[in-house]
Amino acid sequence: MLRFFVATTNPGKLRDFSAAAETHHRERGGHRDVNASTHSSALSEPSVMNQSLLDSDVLFEPLPGLKEIPAPAEDEPTFAGNARVKAIYYSSFAAGELVLADDSGLEVDALDGAPGVRSARFAVDSQFIAAGIDDIDRLNNLCLLERMRDVSAGQRQARYRCVLAAARDGACLFSGDGTVEGEILTAPRGDGGFGYDPLFYLPEMGKTMAELDLATKHRIGHRGRALRDLLRRMPPTR
Ligand SMILES: O=c1nc[nH]c2c1ncn2[C@H]1C[C@H](O)[C@@H](COP(=O)(O)OP(=O)(O)OP(=O)(O)O)O1
Ligand SMILES: [Mg+2]
């Protein structure tokens, strides 16, 4: 059994990690998943994983007591830097355990890569307000639509980027990263996912990220790719 304590304050990320664990378990031949997807091909690419992973279940549990822990500053210029800072910081609250942190966000070509590492703080940074709306994801989405009001249909390319870092007792041990390419719509579609998902359109799927089931999001999304990359890079003996 390989257990990560996931140190994130974002419930949407936690749901993605639960879906990832279900996928890994299912592909080892387990039967724990009651919502088995019909798109289960090569979801976790087991052939490229190290033997300890093939032999074990991967568990992602929320870091115990996270609500009481003050959040660290996320002021690094890169996703990798912030993921590392978060993993190292939170690992001191779970002695001897593997602690996983995620830093992720959206890069929009027409905005020169913004909001990037500032994705969670996009509306606040832009001093964007909308009457009666205080949900931060909705504000960020409205802010994005406003900033892209004059960007034409062929110029709306964007990507999600995710970096995961694993630390134990204050030392960062390994990491992984993943991206997924898409386009920013002019109006939201779908009610799954979180964050920018209703505006993030995947041309090959004909759907937004908010219209995908979690197993498919894991298969093609930035977080699923980062997780497979991290597991591939994990040293075989821990
Ligand atoms: O799959 C995704 N689907 C939609 N939106 C996403 C996704 N992945 C990242 N995002 C957006 C949400 C947030 O605006 C920012 C992450 O900010 P980021 O600082 O990494 O996370 P957070 O503050 O929500 O939680 P925490 O730092 O405790 O992990 O990018
Ligand atoms: Mg954050």
TrEMBL record:
Cellular component annotations (GO), alphabetically ordered: cytosol
Residues forming the catalytic site: D103
GO molecular function: dITP diphosphatase activity; ITP diphosphatase activity; metal ion binding; nucleotide binding; ribonucleoside triphosphate phosphatase activity; XTP diphosphatase activity
Enzyme class label: hydrolase
Binding site for substrate: T8, T9, N10, P11, G12, K13, S104, F194, G195, Y196, D197, K217, H222, R223
Cofactor: Mg(2+)
GO biological process, one term: nucleotide metabolic process
Pfam families cross-referenced by the UniProt entry: Ham1p_like
Catalytic reaction(s) noted: dITP + H2O = dIMP + diphosphate + H(+); ITP + H2O = IMP + diphosphate + H(+); XTP + H2O = XMP + diphosphate + H(+)
Record protein name field: dITP/XTP pyrophosphatase
UniProt remark on cofactor binding: Binds 1 Mg(2+) ion per subunit.
Biased amino acid composition, Polar residues: 35-46
Residues involved in Mg(2+) binding: D103
Bias type Basic and acidic residues, positions: 22-34
Presence of keyword Disulfide bond: no
Organism of provenance: Silvibacterium bohemicum
Function: Pyrophosphatase that catalyzes the hydrolysis of nucleoside triphosphates to their monophosphate derivatives, with a high preference for the non-canonical purine nucleotides XTP (xanthosine triphosphate), dITP (deoxyinosine triphosphate) and ITP. Seems to function as a house-cleaning enzyme that removes non-canonical purine nucleotides from the nucleotide pool, thus preventing their incorporation into DNA/RNA and avoiding chromosomal lesions.
Lineage, top ranks: Bacteria, Pseudomonadati, Acidobacteriota, Terriglobia, Terriglobales
